[in-house]
Amino acid sequence: MNGFDVSYGRVDDATMRLGQQTEEVARRIEELDAKMQKLLADLEGETKENYEAKVKSWRMNVADMRTLLGKAQNALNEIRNNYSGTDRREAMNWASLL
Question: DSSP assignment of the chain, as one string?
C-alpha cells in the first residue's frame, strides 16, 4: 500500500464547496453594493469614485475566482477520473488471477 487514497465523494464535495463559496462572496458584494447605492446618491467626488473603483475591483476578483475555480474543478475531475481508471484496471488484474 502506498498510503495514497482518493475518496470520490470528497473530491466531488470539495469541487461543490469551492463553487458555493465563490458564489457566496459574489452575493455579498452585490448585497453591499445595493445597500451602498442609497448612500452614494448623497456622495460625490473622490469618496464615490474610490468606492466604485473598489467594487469594480472586487467583482473582477470574483471573476478571477470563478476562472480559477473552473480550472481547479477540471483538475479535480481529471484526478478523479484517472484514479478511477487505475482502480478499475487494478481490479481487473486481480480478478484475472482468480
Answer: --S----HHHHHHHHHHHHHHHHHHHHHHHHHHHHHHHHHTT--THHHHHHHHHHHHHHHHHHHHHHHHHHHHHHHHHHHHHHHHHHHHHHHHHHHH-
Domain boundaries along the sequence of the chain = 3-97
Instruction: Kindly report the pTM of this predicted structure.
Output: 0.69
Q: In the chain, what is the greatest distance between 2 CA atoms, to the nearest angstrom?
A: 80
**Looking at domain 3-97, which of 1.10.357, 1.10.287, 2.40.160, 3.40.50 is its CATH number?**
1.10.287
pLDDT in tens, 14-29: 878 888 999 999 999 9
